[in-house]
Amino acid sequence: MTQPTFIEGEHLHTALALAASGLPALPLRAGKVPFGNCRRCTGNACGGRPNMKTPGTCTCPGPCHAWAAATTDPTVINSRPWRRAWLYASAVAYHPGGAGLTVVDLDNADAIAWAREHLPVTQTVPTTRGEHWLYLGRMQSANGVRPGVDIKSTMAYARWLGFGAGEMASLPDTVRALAVSKPALARPTSLALTVTAPNGDGECRHRTPSFLERGIAMAEQRITAATSGVHNAVYRTFLAVLSTHGRCGCLTDAHVGRLFTAAQAKGESARHCTEAWANARTTLGV
């Protein structure tokens, strides 16, 4: 029991220190992943996102829903439900956006070389495989903005690996532009290999091609207009498109690609898009 108690104290001490400095902290279990939902939120009954990155409407006492659980309140961090999490935690994470920060996560040597050439010098923290570059300022998080490059800020968490070295610079437009330009890097070839439109053999009720075009355009607009609960909005939109256009065979891979591009522009990863599409097809049986 000595070792778990020591680790618990170490992580708890780190989390309290982060909270005191204004960094919202949370525990991570093995594999650098957040703790699961509490009992009252089992199966995401509260409306939380399945991968626990978006909160529901719960007021859980425990570290539920990943980045949304991150807190600077020492009373919460030191509470009984959280102490149990610290006992099993393997690392401490923080919510960069909650502290007004952005982390550019560089996952390999090539990504680091690119950053050194294109990004302003800033505070740098070594990671297992690369580096975290920290900037003052928050923005939309986005994964895979370049090969080996993720952006972690709002609605995301980053593992705490220390203060690193160097003076933190202001968030440059170069980094902000990466998230904006992400749809252009959406890798349509891999989309065609992993996700296809349903063949469908049902009756076509479109009457004119413009009906289908208008439906896809409205779906893109619905995803783009989402201001919260983006994952749920994407899933509901996929569900609506498939229920209307998924059974007659008129929906093409190009249409699916447009929906995925709109979703990725809102910060969804290709994997999350694929999961939402597959879940919608399963729900409708198409």
Textual characterization of the structure:
With 286 residues, this protein is α+β, with helices and mostly antiparallel strands. It folds into three domains: 2-94, no CATH class; 97-181, Bifunctional DNA primase/polymerase domain (Prim-pol fold), CATH 3.30.2250.10; 186-284, no CATH class. The chain is built from ten helices and ten strands. The chain has helices at 2-20, 74-77, 80-88, 109-118, 173-180, 188-194, 209-225, 230-245, 253-265, 270-284, and strands at residues 25-29, 33-34, 91-94, 101-106, 123-126, 131-136, 142-146, 149-152, 158-159, 169-170. The strands form two sheets. Strands 4, 5, 6, 7, 8 and 10 form a six-stranded mixed sheet that branches. Strand 7 and strand 8 form a beta hairpin. The longest helix is centred in the N-terminal third of the chain and has 19 residues, at 2-20.
- Domain count, please report it: 3
Helix content: 40-55%
Residue share in β-strands: 5-15%
Radius of gyration: 21 Å
**What is the N-to-C order of secondary-structure elements (H for helix, E for strand)?**
HEEHHEEHEEEEEEHHHHHH
Q: Count all strands and give the number.
A: 10
Structural class: alpha+beta
Query: Overall pLDDT, averaged?
Result: 81
